[in-house]
Amino acid sequence: MQSTPHPNTSERSGRSDAGALWQPAEHNPESGSTAWSKLHALRVAESTKPFLARGHRVKRCTRCLLNPCFCSQRTPAPCEGSDFLLVFHRNELLKPTNTGRLIADCFPANTWACTWHRTQQPPELLTLINQPQYAPVLVFPGEHNPVIDHLSSLPSNKRLLLIVLDGTWKQARKIYLQSPWLHALPIVHLQVDATSQYRLRQAPGSNQLATVEAVSQTLAQLQKPQTATALERYFTAFTQHYLAMRSNHSTHN
Q1: To 5 degrees, how large is the angle CA 215–CA 224–CA 161?
Q2: Phi and psi at residue 96, in whole multiples of 5°?
Q3: CB 3.0 to 4.6 Å from 4: which of 36, 41, 53, 250, for a disulfide?
């Protein structure tokens, strides 16, 4: 098991608080450093009391938050012309069942991360979205956004930037509704033809997907099959590992 590294100020985008935009990091097999792990470490450091989720008595790896440790399963995958911006609800950062972090695990050199604040967003977040090399797409069923169905709907000379809202459905909707800067971004109408395979939490509806499933489906519809498949495989391995861990600890309690 590994200890979560303390955030390095030089790797942040100019802010010293949990609202900072954390930059992608080259994968380091020794530290497992990603934008999510740095943001998570800062969130833990600022907490005034322990997060008592289900199974909180289990001694977990401080990096992957599982026991047995899952860190050896993390292998960076190639990313087909895509980057990711994870916008987390602050409570989601502490949950071992969170799946948004799997994106940062799979694509550490292509994933940005920040915590959402209603009144104070990192200015560098908006700068990132408006960079000329990016074609930003929101991964959320927005009500007022333009809808695209194919990659051909986006400029061919730009890199895809998927903006992912990560929290419960209620939290993600709150983030969307209270963030006007999200409302003009194009979205993909997901063609969901199967129920969610995420069995670690109960979704409000059978057609509602976990964060990582929605991202994988978006990638597939935007003709990024290798990236989508890599994420799906990692998600499946994570889910199976977590369920086995939960069953094992239930047996011994």
Answers
A1: 60
A2: -60, -25
A3: 41
| 196 sits in which H/E element | none
Sign of CA dihedral 214, 220, 224, 229: positive
Contact 37, 28 (CB under 8 A): no
What the block records as the tokens of 195 is 């129920």
Q: Which amino acid is at 242?
A: Y
Q: Using alpha carbons only, what angle is made at residue 168 by residues 167 and 174, rounded to the nearest 5 degrees?
A: 75
Mean pLDDT over 129-150 rounds to: 88
**What's the residue count for the chain?**
253
CB 138 within 8 A of CB 145: yes
At residue 126, what are phi and psi to the nearest 5 degrees?
-65, -35
Share of the chain above pLDDT 90, in %: 42
Instruction: Round to whole Å and give the CA distance between 114 and 244.
Output: 31
- How far apart, in Å, do the first and last CA atoms of the chain sit? 23
Report how far Cα 68 is from the mean position of its chain's Cα atoms: 22
Q: What is the DSSP string of 60-84?
A: --TTT--SS--GGG------SSEEE
Relative to beta strand 159-166, strand 147-148 is: unpaired
Query: Does 138 score more than 50 pLDDT?
Result: yes
CB-based contact 55:65 (threshold 8 Å)? no
The answer to whether 165 and 99 have CB atoms below 8 angstroms apart is: no
Amino acid at 71: C
Would the pLDDT of 110 be above 60? yes
Question: Roughly what angle, to the nearest 10 degrees, separates helices 211-221 and 225-251?
Answer: 160
Q: Cα separation of 174 and 127, whole Å?
A: 22
